[in-house]
Amino acid sequence: MPFLIELIKRGETCDDADVAIVGIPFDKGVVLEGGRPGSSMAPENIRAELSKYHKAYNLKNDVDLRNLKIVDMGDIPLKGMDSWQAHKKIQAEMEKIFDKYPVVIVLGGGHDISYSTIKALSTRGPIGGLNLDAHMDVKDRDDLGSGTPFGNLLREEILGGKNFIEMGMHDNFATKDDVDFLRSKGCKIIPLSSVNKKGVDKSIKSTFKYIGARKSLFLSVDIDVVAEAFAPGCSAPSADGFSPQKIIRASYLAGKQKGLKLFEIMEVNPKHDTDNRTSRLAATMIAAFLTGLAKIKSN
Predict the structure, then answer these.
(1) Dist CA 85 CA 2 (whole Å)
(2) What CATH code is carried by the domain that includes residue 65?
(3) Which residues lie below 8 Å from residue 29, measured CB to CB, with a gap of 6+?
(4) pLDDT tens series, the chain, 299 aa
(5) DSSP 21-70
(6) Which of 41, 161, 214, 252 is the most exposed place for a label (fewest CB within 10 A)?
(7) Distance CA 282, CA 196 (A)
(8) Domain count along the chain
(9) Considering the entire predicted model, what is its pTM?
């Protein structure tokens, strides 16, 4: 049985791929937000961890991943660009990738990147999705900080509130203004305490059922939704949060979700990681997501 990395083709060598991986090494939005820079290093580090351990077989779900065709598109080049230039480039490149491949995995970068990845997805028709995050990222500012992407998407009506759910937010990481804004847009908020009570399976499945069919769906994960003990390498760590088992399960369920076109992992920060622990978790999340894809393809 081969290693998972052996299934991943490099560059544009797999035109009929089921899924494409792309890195977006950009963290100026984190700096604008006052967070810790370093997430621009994440795509390289996550790929390195993905190449070490993971096999092309999932024991728990008895899934052989060799029926998947996977291509790694490399990184979108953004060196020397300011935030507005970078986001224009990200959107343009992502639109090309969505035109070519049915499912895309994005390795961030700061969470501001989601503004342009999701905007690119919206050019394909109606969209809906889920933000798994310790924070809500709906601040109303003129810049493109990492705390603004979903607020920008909602205010510009690129993303409809009834098609968007915030999940995993920590109790003291939101403002009343954030909550009032989301509710005014018709968004659903599922805090971390509710996920812990209801369970990941019911929370994720009911979320996508609530959003409905006939949409291009996304799951955006800020790694700070995972507790700092398990993911120390992130831009804004928190003592509370998901366990590895919960975030890996959520990634698998996303892979199984019909209509999901975009899976992104944001804010992994190798500069502040411990023994590559957080990059390794991100790589395991990707393996779980791919397992979900392989599972539905085999059915």
Answers:
(1) 40
(2) 3.40.800.10
(3) 83, 110, 111, 112, 113, 144, 145, 146, 148
(4) 589 999 999 876 688 899 999 999 999 999 999 889 999 999 999 999 999 888 899 999 999 999 999 999 999 999 999 999 999 999 999 999 999 999 999 999 999 999 999 999 999 999 999 999 999 999 999 899 999 999 999 999 999 999 999 999 998 888 999 999 999 999 999 999 999 999 999 999 999 988 987 789 999 999 999 999 999 999 888 899 999 999 999 999 999 999 999 999 999 999 999 999 999 999 999 999 999 999 988 77
(5) EEEE---HHHHHHT--S-GGGHHHHHHHHHTTS-BSEETTTTEEGGG--E
(6) 214
(7) 21
(8) 1
(9) 0.96
Work out the angle at residue 140's Cα, subtended by the Cα atoms of residues 136 and 146, and round it to the nearest 5 degrees.
55
Residue 258: domain span: 4-298
Angle between helices 244-256 and 277-298 (to 10 degrees): 30
Token representation of residue 69? 């065709």
Helical (H) or strand (E) element with 197 = helix 192-198
Place of tokens 């049985």: 1
